[in-house]
Amino acid sequence: MRAIATHPAARGLNDDAAVLDVGGETLVLTHDTMVEGVHFLPEQDPADVAWKLVATNMSDLAPKGAQPLAVLLSYQLGRDDAAFLDGLQAALRHYGDAALLGGDTVRAPGPQSVGLTAIGRATHRPVPSRGGSAAGDALWITGPVGAAMLGFEALQAGTGDSSAYRRPSALLTEGQLLAPLVSAIMDVSDGVLLDASRMADASGVTIAIDRMAVPIATPEDRRDEALRWGDDYQLLFTLPAGVLPPCPAFRIGTVLQRQGAPILLDGAPVSGRLGYEHG
Amino acid sequence: MRAIATHPAARGLNDDAAVLDVGGETLVLTHDTMVEGVHFLPEQDPADVAWKLVATNMSDLAPKGAQPLAVLLSYQLGRDDAAFLDGLQAALRHYGDAALLGGDTVRAPGPQSVGLTAIGRATHRPVPSRGGSAAGDALWITGPVGAAMLGFEALQAGTGDSSAYRRPSALLTEGQLLAPLVSAIMDVSDGVLLDASRMADASGVTIAIDRMAVPIATPEDRRDEALRWGDDYQLLFTLPAGVLPPCPAFRIGTVLQRQGAPILLDGAPVSGRLGYEHG
Fold first, then answer.
1. Residue A3: predicted pLDDT
2. CB contacts < 8 Å between A and B, how many?
3. How far, in Å, CA of B186 to CA of B235, rounded?
4. Cα A150 vs. chain centroid, distance in angstroms?
């Protein structure tokens, strides 16, 4: 989105899930698209691709404290459509039986593109965003990062456990528990450093991260990579000082008044790539 | 969708827009995807592509009597993203200022794929469907078919008026006027014969169409083609005998008890292709 982010119509794309008040309810809406060769490997099991498509959308609902209601599918016919739909059904059942309400299918040349729109119901209002962190808050994360990186490597190597990459978990229950308490929250889809810097920018603060406090699923010598890899879908959030999270979580930093850089790692600005940048 | 229509998860894809009750309101939801080289020409103005993407989605809301609320965009970066977004903004403004709430952008090789999810609010309940026609009803259409065919030919030839193909109209106002009265209604996106046969199948009836009564935008010698071309987005609907439409419309047939064929044209079943079949 960087390429077109300056267009007034483009605000909000690739951002937090959207919020829409309807009747007496508040809906949370999101759409994610995945393309063969970009977001999944051509040889991957279509059922895994469908699972991940559902999980990434559910992970957009999670930081909003939303409960899934329904999805719409955009499906380019592919190698094994029945396997894809089996995976989709299984994933929807896993995430609270959100209904597949409709969508569109197309037959087209080129890499397969699949998209999903997910609609949820906010369980707490106001719906939290990534933009509410204040100086003095503590930064937390629900679990380790780097597992998807190891899973991706296992998938490419054809050996080892690739499930963290193929079938990530969206933390809907944790999101619903956290929504009433957090000052800011988002899912970590593009790397903890990059997503923390987005939270800092949206909140107008600087976030100081304690490098060794971030839980990682990798060997220690790969810590810097684990902090820059996405696809883990942990929840990153800030709580006012003294408030403890209602679910398992790790304290990894502190929110400061805005300084030059959006994030500090062990007290210093971070140079170079922070994580996965979208097209 | 024919290829995967037998999968239980696939019911409802490529069908009527979906209906979801939320917070005292009834939402109408739809998603359409358009692919370069399949649904639009590679050399088309991106602003026209955006306009058509909005119009096709709005045309799914129209037969539900829905008022547009919001859209989510799935956008593969292309040749001129600013032109696309300009066209999108103009079309959204045209259709009642539906808000672009969010979405996703991807950078990918291969033909450009763009998708839109549209969300509207039902103005009348129960929300009409294509499945309510009963023997004795009359079949109506809001206006001529074949204009998009001529527009497509003009666009390919590089001369003449191609606007009906490039910038179709979605009949939202007509849909809202019709919703309280119709027994069945749908938009004509794939050809009046094919869409009438779908209405007949969904309603469990046979629909007898008077070939010469169907208004066409083409010369008379192209009537049979005009009845099979899509993209005109007229509304096709049935009314109980004696009920007159509250908007301009043409009576083109009569609903009969189910016989062998879903539709009869001047009293005889139609052989061969009825219209545009999706992948």
1. 43
2. 209
3. 6
4. 18
Mean of all residue pLDDT scores within chain B: 93
CB contact under 8 A, A4 and B81: yes
Q: A185: domain range?
A: 138-266
Question: Can you give the pLDDT at residue B273?
Answer: 84
Closest residue by Cα to residue B139 from B130, B150, B147: B130
Which two three-digit tokens encode residue B276? 């545009």
Answer for the pair A217, A224: CB distance below 8 angstroms, yes or no: no
Mean pLDDT, chain A, as a whole number? 93
Give me the phi and psi of A62, to 5 degrees please: -55, -50
Structural domain contains residue B72: yes
Cβ-Cβ contacts under 8 Å, B9 against chain A: 85-86, 88-89, 100
* Statement to judge: residues B145 and B264 lie in one domain: yes
Residues A62 and A18 in one domain: yes
> What CATH number did the domain enclosing A115 receive?
3.30.1330.10
Tell me chain A's radius of gyration from C-alpha atoms: 18
User: What digits encode the pLDDT tens for the residues B47-98?
Assistant: 999 999 999 999 999 999 999 999 999 999 999 999 999 999 999 999 988 9
Taking CB atoms and an 8 Å cutoff, what residues of chain B touch A8? 89
- B184-187 and B235-239: which strand pairing? antiparallel
pLDDT in tens, B220-272: 999 999 999 988 999 999 999 999 999 999 999 999 999 999 999 999 999 88
Contact A33 B77 (CB under 8 A): no
Both B163 and B73 in one domain: the answer is no
Domain count, chain B: 2
Using DSSP's 3-state secondary structure scheme, residue A174 falls into helix
Are residue A182 and residue A84 in the same domain, yes or no? no
Cβ distance B12 to A119 less than 8 Å, yes or no, reads no
Nearest-by-Cβ selection for A22 from B25, B77, B107: B25
Could you give phi then psi for residue B185, rounded to 5 degrees?
-160, 145
Token pair 């929807």 is found at A92
At residue B1, the pLDDT reads 37
Residue B31 marked in a binding site = no
ipTM: 0.89
Cβ atoms of B238 and B140 closer than 8 Å: yes
Q: In 3-state terms, what secondary structure has residue A202?
A: helix
**Residue A105 φ then ψ, to 5°:** -120, 145
Cβ–Cβ < 8 Å for A237, A140 = yes
